[in-house]
From TrEMBL:
Record-annotated Amidase domain positions: 65-513
Organism: Drosophila suzukii
InterPro entries: Amidase_dom (IPR023631), AS_sf (IPR036928), FAAH2 (IPR052739)
A GO molecular-function descriptor: hydrolase activity
Protein name: Fatty-acid amide hydrolase 2-A
Gene3D superfamilies (alphabetical): Amidase signature (AS) domain
Gene: LOC108006246
Keyword Hydrolase: yes
Annotated PANTHER family: AT07710P-RELATED, FATTY-ACID AMIDE HYDROLASE
Transmembrane segments: 7-28
GO cellular component, one term: endomembrane system
Highest taxon of the lineage: Eukaryota
Keyword field contains Hydrolase: yes
Keywords, sorted A to Z: Hydrolase, Membrane, Transmembrane, Transmembrane helix
Pfam families: Amidase (PF01425)
Length: 536
């Protein structure tokens, strides 16, 4: 355990304990209405991929009608959210029209069935996180220095979705270089949470979280190196799946790394309001060879799954972390109680030794010296790198830097080796590798762990630095390469989404996804920011 690093964590915990009541009482007093998101009116917006495909296949619905419906919803909510970076609505409608012509050209019902077997997402709209490379679209990833860069080709996962027939509508907002849990950049401005405009939708897949949470995306593609799918999913009340390390290609993603082991840490995965769609979307994103490893189509019974749970980190390590919100703890308890009533074996987990969880998590990322840096080497040579970052941070606090503060904090952690010596980092990396085996033994072939996705619901803008030091809850599982599904579990008394994580051993993603489907059935899944006002 690193004393200096832990002193930072303790300071943040103490600061949060003091400042949070003051913010709630004096700075941000309760308001009668915190969101102006218009209600969902069109019934198409509350149908899953599977339901919409059935309508397209039976010719009860056209792709043009569906795409236009989502475009209208995006335009209605984005003026409030600022989640869209660049759209391709005209091109999307043209592609939808071509899709309708293709379906109409089928001579028989069997021809239509074959078409949808080959292209299971045919005619369905998708939104793409900007960092995931959509050809011809902006690829700045929130950076002023990249503002004129366009993606020269589709990223591998985007290509697979398009090959399956999906129609991209836009690229969505990210923090600078994806280096933050708040989507607020000097290039594109601040993205807002659909449940409370005074709060962040998270990061780095913040635009995707906001659009999905507002009912403006059928599904989206996000990326995750330290919680960037799961945190926005928590903050915006949707499902998000971080796949097992290495099963979904990140080719074409920015930032990236030349390290062949990098795909163990960075993953791309689906974000959606519908748990039942996750398995199929993951299968398409992973591709035939890798999805075979996941056995997503192999049948198994829910009651075969053994459930363990933990309400957070324990012992001294738990005390040093910011405490887990009581509503999140209660959500875990509600989930375990329900699963127990279905006959599943449920018990409190005896977790492996996680005393050094923060050190292991940060070492894994700090060691990625082949990953793109925020400050180019020419801007910060040799021993001046850390000093240059500190200077930029001071400028950022004063509003004079061309970089964002949270991204600079992330950069500082990497450039400084997370305030650890190289020898200590190597020891913690070795320890984390051993932990993979311990978690695999703990969970086995049919076990899942219910765990807090993060310690708190969505924080207010500019106060996300408090939650930033809670990313040990998410980052640890990137370092370990474990699959994790975030499951929404309703809203708290402030109207903010809460939820939990379902975790399994590597390549057992299907267990997480199956539990997510059951919890959606039992507890309702996505709760819209405002009640629907559906047309008759």
């Amino acid at each position: 355990m690193e004393i200096f690093l832990r002193l930072i964590v303790i300071f943040v915990k103490a600061f949060a304990w003091i400042i949070s009541p003051l913010l709630d009482t004096f700075v941000y007093p309760p308001k009668s209405k915190r969101t102006l998101i218009p209600p969902v009116k069109n019934r198409l917006l509350i149908l899953s991929v599977q339901e919409l495909r059935n309508r397209l296949r039976s010719r009860q619905l056209t792709s043009v009608e569906l795409v236009r419906t989502y475009i209208e919803r995006i335009e209605a909510v984005n003026e409030h959210l600022n989640a869209l970076v660049e759209s391709r609505f005209t091109a999307a409608l043209e592609e939808a029209n071509e899709t309708d012509d293709l379906i109409a050209s089928c001579q028989s019902a069997s021809d239509v069935e074959k078409l949808f077997e080959e292209r299971p997402l045919l005619g369905l709209p998708v939104t793409i996180k900007e960092s995931c490379a959509l050809e011809g679209m902006t690829f700045a990833v929130g950076s002023l220095f990249r503002k004129n860069i366009k993606a020269k080709a589709d990223g591998e996962t985007v290509k697979r979705l398009k090959t399956a027939g999906a129609i991209p509508l836009l690229v969505s907002a990210t923090p600078e270089y994806c280096f933050s849990i708040e989507t607020d950049t000097l290039l594109n401005g601040r993205c807002l949470n659909p449940y409370d405009f005074e709060r962040t939708p998270g990061g780095s897949s913040g635009g995707e979280g906001a659009l999905n949470g507002a009912g403006a995306s059928l599904f989206g593609i996000g990326s995750d190196i330290g919680g960037s799918i799961r945190i926005p999913s928590l903050y915006c009340g949707i499902f998000g799946h971080k796949p097992s390390g290495g099963v979904v290609s990140v080719k074409g993603h920015f930032p990236n790394s030349k390290d062949p082991n990098f795909e163990h840490y960075l993953v791309e995965g689906p974000m959606t309001r519908f748990a039942g769609d996750l398995s199929e979307l993951l299968q398409i994103m992973a591709g035939k060879e890798n999805s075979a490893k996941l056995r997503l189509n192999e049948p198994f019974q829910l009651n075969q799954i053994k459930v363990q749970y933990a309400l957070g980190f324990e012992g001294i390590n738990g005390w040093m972390h910011t405490s887990v919100d009581k509503d999140i703890k209660e959500a875990i308890c509600r989930a375990t109680t329900h699963l127990k009533t279905l006959g599943l074996e449920v018990k409190k987990a005896s977790l492996p030794n996680l005393q050094n969880s923060v050190e292991m998590s940060l070492s894994g990322i700090a060691a990625q010296d082949l990953m793109d840096y925020l400050l180019m080497d020419g801007e910060a040579e040799g021993s001046n790198k850390v000093l240059k970052i500190l200077w930029e941070m001071l400028k950022s606090f004063a509003g004079h830097s061309r970089y964002t503060t949270n991204a600079l904090i992330f950069e500082l952690m990497r450039r400084s080796g997370a305030f650890m010596s190289q020898s200590k980092m190597n020891l913690y990396i070795k320890e984390s590798r051993g932990l993979i085996g311990e978690f695999s033994n703990l969970l086995g072939e049919n076990g899942v762990l219910l765990f807090p996705t993060l310690n708190l619901p969505a924080p207010r803008h500019k106060w996300s630095v408090i939650s930033l030091w809670g990313v040990g809850y998410t980052l640890l599982f990137n370092v370990l390469g474990l699959p994790v599904t975030h499951v929404p579990m309703g809203l708290n008394d402030r109207g903010l989404p809460i939820g939990i994580s379902v975790i399994a051993r590597p390549n057992q993603d299907r267990l997480c996804l199956r539990v997510a489907v059951e919890l959606e059935r039992a507890f309702g899944g996505w709760t819209p920011p405002v009640p629907h006002d559906l047309d008759d």
